[in-house]
Amino acid sequence: MKSTQATTFRSLNTELNSINNQLEDLRLQAATGKKLNRPSDDPAAIRPVLSARTQIRSSERFIESMSTALDRLDNLDSYMDQAENLMVSAKETAINAINSSLSDSDLITLADKVGYIKTEMMSVANAQIGGQYIFAGFEEDTPPFTEENGVVVYNGDSNIKKLETAPGEYVKTNLDGASLFLGLTDLDGDGLLEQTGPNLFEELTNLERAIRGESGQVYNGSSQMPNNDIGYLDAANGDYTPIALDGAGTPLLDGGGNPIPLTFQGEVVSLQPVTTVDGDQLTIGEYNDQFDPDIVDYSGTALGGAALDQPAYVLSDGSLAVVDATGMPVLTDNAGVPVTDGGGSTIPLVIGGDPIQLSVVPGLQSTLSTLETSADGVRSARSLMGNNAERIETSKGHMESVVIDLEQILSRYEDADLIDVITEITQTETALEAALNVTGKVGQLSILDYL
User: Fold this and answer.
1) What global pTM score does this model have?
2) Is residue 34 part of a domain?
3) What is the pLDDT of residues 342-370, one digit of tens each?
């Protein structure tokens, strides 16, 4: 086969282009530190590289979320530490009031101190992180606790936030404010809050009132009483058992001529409307449809028929209040039979549209155990969130280790060995120089040299 000069030059040119392309690739590897700059550099490596990059991005998002959650839990722990210290301070104040021979002015000072503690507790309960209320559930833009005439109510919800620390794994990152501060929990999942623990604000209020020497207080809704509907059995001699009064302020008497105490099975009446976790108030009809009650016959056999569109109420022992024909709750005796006044009328427990709330101030000695129990409850909740923070910290460390492993895999496919690359660049440049010299020599050949 004949080898013409054109064929020789084409072969030399192809070889020079190949060496130049190889040198360009090596210089790009040296500049970027990557041996995989284009899919064509290593087609077999594309799939594991893309998979590793996807996993790294996903893991980094988890790590970022966990870091934010840990910062939030650190702040939450600080507020819970304040709440615990406030309960301890309240207990110390109670001990001081019990064990010391204090003057009336000293007792007033201690009572004022408890009032300040309650104010501080309200600030803790309404704490914010990043402009969001941390004890309000999902209602982060709403102050969860408000106070009206000494009664603290919850305006948030009972929803719990959960952080996904890994695919399919969730950890709680907030606390239910109603449970922590008011002792209200939805135990059976029926949407209703039950009293399952101590109400911190109520305990502080009782402590303050006990130090001031008060024995009891009656509330109509959130308004303090007595008025001309409620009175006390013998307040002059320290008997603050609440009793019913008629419109003229005269005690209502039973069939035996005795004042009628506002108690239910020995307990002071505390009447609350039935509400769901979301704060919706149920009517008697809605309550019947949802829970099929068997404690009180609302079908009409007992009191001549109840108005089902009236609100449903429960007493302090959790039982439904007996209602009259209009659907209004009425006072009953220990057997659950409606009590009537001298004129044969039942005694309503809702006045002016507001339910009666009767509370007797406990003695100072009995407040000590309840305050300690409340402090323990805060400690338990704090311990729970500490465990959750540890779980998140562990998951974060594990995820960071996963990222390191993935980056090592990625490096194995992508990263270039600069020493090897520089050595190859030197060798390729030498080869290019030699190829250029050969091309120059070949270009000087002529047929005339052989004539």
Assistant:
1) 0.61
2) no
3) 677 777 777 666 676 666 667 778 788 88
